[in-house]
Design brief:
With 119 residues, this protein is mostly beta strands. 4% of the residues lie in helices and 53% in strands.
Length: 119
């Protein structure tokens, strides 16, 4: 089961921390990813974590950090220096192996959490 939380309304430059409860996906074979979908746009990859490391979209590198806590069954997304263009519904997802996440075709999706960044 995947459940995202932590979204909200913030100002540009603020920080926000999203959390994905990822019970059942703690095995090293599961990659966890964060995706987002802005109004009128397609869903896009944001960040992923796998036993081999992390990956980020170019648009968020240096501002967003993904981390995994297997003891708590959570994958967090720390978002710093938020920009209005980060406004979107953020989803966490799980894929068996990293390629499924990077291709945007994970096996499981959680419900989204809204992040709104005002200018």
């Amino acid at each position: 089961q995947l459940q995202a939380s932590g979204g909200g309304l913030v100002h540009a430059g603020d920080s926000l921390r999203l959390s994905c409860a990822a019970s059942g996906f703690t095995s090293d074979y599961w990659a966890i990813g964060w995706f987002r979908q802005a109004p009128g746009k397609e869903r896009e990859f944001v960040a992923s974590v796998y036993y081999s490391g992390t990956n980020y979209a170019d648009s968020v590198k240096g501002r967003l950090t993904i981390s995994r806590d297997n003891a708590k069954d959570t994958v967090d997304l720390q978002m710093n220096g938020l920009k209005p263009e980060d406004t979107a519904v953020y989803y966490c997802a799980a894929g068996f192996g990293l390629p499924s996440i990077l291709r945007g075709t994970p096996a499981y999706w959680g419900q989204g959490t809204q992040v709104t960044v005002s200018s």
